[in-house]
Amino acid sequence: WHLETDLRLGLQQKEFQLYYQPIISLKTGRIAGFEALVRWNSKTRGFVSPGAFIPVAEETGLIVRLGEWILTEACRQIREWHERFPRNPALIMSVNLSGRQFSEPNLVKQIKTILDSAGIEGDRLKLEITESMMMNNVEEAITLLNGLKELGLRLSIDDFGTGYSSLSYLHRFPVDTLKVDKSFVERMEDVKDSDKYISIVQTIISLGHNLNLDVIAEGIETEGQMKVLEFLDCEYGQGYLFSRPLSSENAEALLAKEN
Ligand code: G
Ligand code: G
Ligand code: NA
Ligand code: MN
Predict the structure, then answer these.
(1) What pLDDT is stored for residue 186 in this prediction?
(2) pTM higher than 0.95 for the full model?
(3) Which of 17, 21, 179, 238 to probe ligand 2 with, by most ligand atoms within 8 A of CB?
């Protein structure tokens, strides 16, 4: 595992950076928040995609420290943006949680410490978790999610519809948001099966609304997809149509334009 060695070094030498992809209100067109996405520019390897290093960080346990850095940096950033862009007080920062972090026994305590040292309320931070992470041990997962809710956090189910889960549990998960997986959004324009995929997306949106959850559609790349999602009453969207993930400087430039 040379990658492991490089990851370890990279953590010490601060080679990681967060990028931020805007999440847009489809009702107002304004930025509702950002999803933090980690980037690694390694001195020895150059740019390495998270799809390649997150799984290794998971297997080796390095994700615990990397994840702690990601949460700390994301909370610091959202606090700074709140101070600099007071006309956008609703801005929320979403952070992906890995399975390994989710099973860390002191996750709630760790996040409480991070919130306190950033000086932000829990409701500025949203965690993205997947269905599969919760299905290993449903009762334990619900207890953990309740602990996170007690800190005031918001919770999203990421990639909804693609993981192992059961609808019979969905109403018991104390979550706020469903994220419609980008594979469904992309296929809404499938040459053969667009009708079917539009129906699937419509059903996920209705399911979310019936459970009092917000819905975010991921991976919106075309005007056509956006129009359908607006028609289906989806409240939030994210994707290359609006913006790629941005460096903090470029995210700030975008916020400054809105303010
Ligand atoms: O940003 P990009 O699309 O290249 O990310 C690829 C994958 O890596 C996605 O599945 C994404 O969820 C994951 N990923 C990106 N940033 C983070 C992060 O900060 N933490 C975790 N756990 N996963 C991340
Ligand atoms: O697993 P998760 O849903 O967190 O992954 C999010 C990933 O999707 C990020 O790595 C991000 O770079 C990527 N992404 C964001 N918007 C789009 C998009 O419009 N199209 C595609 N193909 N990927 C996107
Ligand atoms: Na995500
Ligand atoms: Mn996703």
Answers:
(1) 97
(2) yes
(3) 21
d(CA 105, CA 25): 35
Q: How far is the CA of 35 from the centre of ligand 3 (A)?
A: 7
**Which residue CA neighbors atom 20 of ligand 1 most closely?**
96
Strand positions, DSSP E, 56-213? 92-96, 125-130, 154-160, 177-180
210 CA from centroid of ligand 2 (Å): 26
Q: How far is the CA of 184 from the centre of ligand 4 (A)?
A: 11
**pLDDT confidence of residue 168:** 85
The answer to whether the CB of 111 falls within 8 A of the CB of 153 is yes
Task: With cut-offs at 50, 70 and 90, classify the pLDDT of residue 2.
Answer: confident
**Domain 2-181+244-258: which CATH number of 3.20.20.140, 3.40.190.10, 3.20.20.450, 3.40.50.1950:** 3.20.20.450
- Looking at the CA of 180, name the nearest ligand: 4
Proximal ligand: closest to the CA of 128:
3
